[in-house]
Specification:
Layout lengths: L1 E5 L2 E4 L4 E8 L6 E8 L6 E6 L6 E3 L7 E6 L4 E6 L8 E9 L16 E2 L3 E6 L1
Parallel strand pairs: 2-11
Antiparallel strand pairs: 1-3, 3-8, 4-5, 4-9, 5-6, 7-8, 9-10, 9-11
């Protein structure tokens, strides 16, 4: 199982980025995906989650209304569209996967319940 996160970069406050999480070795239809982030000196925290059927999503309060999670089954990719970025969004962003059954509505929000992780992509937002 491999997850490849990409799309990070350097943007100014108010800018946008779209992160991608490309998966291989698994069938995305069976996996819930979560996006997490870790800023320097802080613990890893959840950002957003999507169920294996794509019908259930959740956003942590810190990103609600600004970020959108989506998935493309044909491309085996999950996206995180990030708008209105703030300096406090600066972090390494990770995607993670956990099997939840074929196209279910189950969301997984806990970091320690994800067995598969990507390598992370850096997002830096300047003030």
């Amino acid at each position: 199982v491999q997850l490849q996160a990409s799309g990070g970069g350097f943007v100014q406050t108010g800018g946008s980025l779209r992160l991608s999480c490309a998966v291989s070795g698994i069938t995305l239809d069976y996996y819930a995906i979560g996006w997490f982030r870790q800023a320097p000196g802080k613990e890893r925290e959840g950002v957003s989650y999507i169920s294996s059927n794509g019908g259930s999503t959740y956003y942590e309060d810190s990103v609600k209304g600004r970020f959108t999670i989506s998935r493309n089954y044909a491309a085996d990719t999950v996206y995180l569209q990030m708008n209105s970025l703030k300096p406090e969004d600066t972090a390494v962003y990770y995607c993670a996967a956990r099997t939840t059954g074929y196209r279910t509505s189950i969301l997984i929000k806990s970091t320690n319940r994800y067995p598969y992780w990507g390598q992370g992509t850096q997002v830096t937002v300047s003030s």
